[in-house]
């Protein structure tokens, strides 16, 4: 399954097409995993938070969300550099959804109640690559941090 998704995500297309809903969900989950792994401390708290975020965003049960995360972990490990990965998502996911992705990334980053510079750097990089302004990213961070 994940090999087919990788091929669809990373095959150059002259006409960008929207990702299928399941593919987009797994691609977003892979970005969440990438941020959680950015500080080299990918732990159970972050995995649980990713599951919760995926369940909330996509109306999944926790078991289904954990399965998506598991697939996303494999995709993230195989995915090329963040620049190419996010360019394809930017071309195929709406701006509102990309802003929600940044909010989810901040939620994962703050899940362990520790602000890690590597995770923040990764979010800032992804924000810019997804076409989300620094201001909008900061607003998402404040929104997430305020809900804690």
UniProtKB/TrEMBL annotation:
SUPFAM superfamilies per record: TerB-like
InterPro entries named in the record: DjlA_N (IPR007791), TerB-like (IPR029024)
CDD domains registered for this protein in UniProt: terB_like_2
Location of the Co-chaperone DjlA N-terminal domain: 26-140
Protein name listed in UniProt: TerB family tellurite resistance protein
One Pfam family of this chain: TerB
């Amino acid at each position: 399954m994940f090999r087919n998704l990788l091929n669809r995500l990373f095959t150059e297309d002259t006409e960008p097409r929207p990702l299928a809903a399941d593919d987009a969900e797994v691609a977003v989950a892979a970005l969440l995993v990438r941020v959680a792994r950015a500080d080299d401390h990918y732990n159970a708290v972050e995995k649980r938070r990713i599951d919760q975020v995926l369940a909330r965003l996509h109306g999944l049960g926790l078991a289904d969300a954990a399965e998506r995360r598991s697939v996303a972990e494999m995709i993230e490990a195989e995915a090329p550099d963040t620049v190419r990965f996010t360019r394809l998502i930017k071309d195929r996911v709406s701006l509102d959804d990309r802003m929600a992705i940044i909010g989810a990334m901040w939620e994962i980053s703050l899940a362990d109640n520790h602000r890690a510079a590597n995770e923040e750097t990764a979010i800032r990089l992804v924000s810019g690559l997804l076409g989300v302004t620094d201001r909008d990213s900061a607003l998402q961070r404040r929104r997430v941090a305020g809900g804690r």
